[in-house]
Every structure is written in C-alpha cells, then in structure tokens.
Known about the structure:
GO terms for molecular function: mRNA binding. PPR repeats lie at residues 46-80, 81-115, 117-151, 152-186. The chain is mainly α. The chain has a domain at 1-79. It is built from 11 helices and no strands. The longest helix is centred in the N-terminal third of the chain and has 18 residues, at 25-42. It is elongated.
Amino acid sequence: xxxxxxxxxxxxxxxxxALCDEHGNxxxxxxxxxxxxxxxxxxCCTHDFYKSVITSLCRKGNTFxxxxxxxxxxxxxxxPDSHTYSALIxxxxxxxxxxxxxxxxxxxxxxxxxxxxVDNFNAMILGFCKxxxxxxxxxxxxxxxxxxxxxNETTYVIVVEGIAxxxxxxxxxxxxxxxxxxxxxxxNAVDRIVMQFNLDFD
Length: 202
C-alpha cells in the first residue's frame, strides 16, 4: 500500500485492529508504525485507526489494554473524541467497573477538552440498566439534564427497557405512553418495545 500509494480505508484500520486484538501490544506498536508511515506519505488521518483499536479492545473485554494504548497514543498527539470515550465507558461497565466509568465522565467534564455528550451519558445509563440498577441510571439521567445535555430518543428507550427488564412492566408502559404523547419517542421505537416486552399498549 505504501509503495503503490494506496489510501487506507475503514477495512484497513479494522484489519489492523483485529491483528492487534489477536497478538497483543507488540502488534499494536507494529500497526502503529505502519499507519504512521502511510500517514506521512499520503497525509491520511490516523484517528480512525486509533479509535477502531480502542473500540475493539473494549468490546472484547480488554479495557485495561485499551487505556494503556490510549495513554501511549495521546503522547503521540492522538486526541480522543466522544466516540472513543463512549467505547471506554461501555468497556468499563461491561467489566463491572462502574466507578471507573463514572470517573471517565468526571474527567471529561473537568478537563474541558472533550465535554461529555449525550452518547457518553447514554453509554453510562445503559451500563446501569444492564445490571438492573435503573435507580442509578436515573441518577445519571438527572446529572445529564443538570449539565444541559438534552436526552434523545435513545436515552428514553434505554430507560424504558431498563424499567421493563426489572419486571416493572406496568410502569414501563406508563412511561412509554407519556414519552409517546410528548413526541420524544417515535412510533417505531414504541412498537419495538411493545413487542419485545409484550406490553398491553393502546
């Protein structure tokens, strides 16, 4: 690719990320040098590669390695975006490290470099809902609103599904009805939740 002046695309980054997953940090560094070489010759962006590797590591339950890689990459000038932070939050939640995930949100807020987005808060809310702690998810929801990040349809769907997963089907139905009446959840989402949990819904 380097000698033929081929530009890397998403497939290139994903293939290198998969290689890193299989063979650990040595291959991460090797892939790092390959991408840097491509970047220098063709002025292409390496951000997608870094983001892809971190996301992939987190998805595979190797969040510690993802954080180590992030530290190494930031020294080389990489600036994580909200998507990268969402991957880290999801990874920490999946590994049961909810305190660490909340700490990521706090660091984002305090540093001012990349303020938490709705998607970052959604990742945290989903993490709590998956372990049937909708009470904690709602605390994050309140924090999000206090910080003037307006919930989107995904936020509301996560909360309703969290309530339903805890067996509170009547409450989930009532909340869903209210959200539909306020037109913050679309009909497609309503239909999917009703079918998923067999809610008695008019």
